[in-house]
Design a protein that fits this description.
alpha+beta, Peroxisomal Thiolase, Chain A, domain 1, 7-stranded mixed β-sheet, two-stranded antiparallel sheet, 31% helix
């Protein structure tokens, strides 16, 4: 097995729902990230052997193998292949897993892997059937309901969740102000409603001055007596990120300094009703 290294990484700023990035087609956002990654690495696009992206809702504007469309939109040679995969919340990570496996096995030397999702443009639940088969063995629920189940199972209180969310915003704000994300983020130009152009350079969902009192006043969303609110739940976001992976030998040959080594990977199935817990058994394995 060959050693796999990450030689470059870029991402778009994370856009809020119906925010600055919502006017961009997913293929166009992914194309900008791909182009920036290749230009930053100084890579000849002809050396790219595959492009693998994850996407949780690959239909509508995110359908038709959007990764291949993004490759063409970015101006890469038509010979560069691409594929879009879906492992739900782990889709982007799975793209990196598949890339690393292909390189470690000796099948390829240079692969771009990442993920894209413009949630503002794809309605939630649009990939769900109108009705599940009556004999389906699991009573699947909305992700918000699942979050309530997780909180109940691990005895997480509303106060604990609000405090975690509050400090999460503070930490992200401090990291942004220190410039911790400047190297990885590429500015994305977008059009405002009045037609004027602007540029998003930082993550849009961070609250730089979160208000504890306002967070406490928010009502639960998924259960009348629940703990999940709009203040402590995950945001609906738009974004894209990509990594350039190579075999160590190829990286040395091309003069790239590895930024990280791909050490291990694991995939484990978990309860589809109380979802969101998959990383626990996968990490243990």
């Amino acid at each position: 097995m060959r050693e796999v290294v990450i030689v470059e990484a870029v991402r778009a700023p994370i856009g809020r729902r119906n925010g600055s990035l919502s006017g961009l087609l997913p293929t166009h956002l992914a194309a900008r990230v791909l182009r920036a990654l290749i230009d930053r690495a100084g890579l000849d696009p002809k050396q790219i052997e595959d492009v693998i992206f994850g996407c949780v809702t690959p239909l509508g504007e995110q359908g038709a193998n959007l990764t291949r469309l993004a490759v063409l939109q970015a101006g890469l040679p038509v010979q560069v292949p691409a594929v879009t995969l879906n492992r739900m919340c782990g889709s982007g990570q799975q793209a990196v897993h598949f890339a690393a496996q292909a390189i470690a096995a000796g099948d390829m030397d240079v692969i771009i892997a990442g993920g894209v999702e413009v949630m503002s443009r794809v309605p939630l639940g649009s990939d769900w059937p109108a009705q599940w088969p009556p004999d389906f063995p699991y009573p699947l629920v909305h992700q918000g309901v699942s979050a309530e189940m997780v909180a109940e199972k691990w005895n997480l209180s509303r106060e604990e969740l609000d405090e975690f969310a509050y400090h999460s915003h503070l930490k992200a704000a401090a990291a942004t102000q220190r410039g911790d994300f400047e190297r990885e983020i590429i500015p994305i130009e977008f059009a405002r409603p009045d037609g004027s152009l602007d540029c998003l350079k930082i993550d849009e969902g961070i609250r730089f001055e979160p208000d504890r009192n306002k967070m406490r006043q928010l009502k639960p969303v998924f259960k009348d007596d629940g703990v999940i609110t709009a203040g402590n739940a995950s945001q609906i976001s738009d974004g894209c990120a990509a990594l350039l992976l190579m075999s160590l030998e190829k990286a040395i040959e091309l003069g790239h300094k590895p930024r990280a080594r791909f050490a291990a990977r694991s995939v484990v199935g978990s309860d589809p009703v109380i979802m969101l817990t998959g990383p626990i058994p996968a990490t243990r394995q």
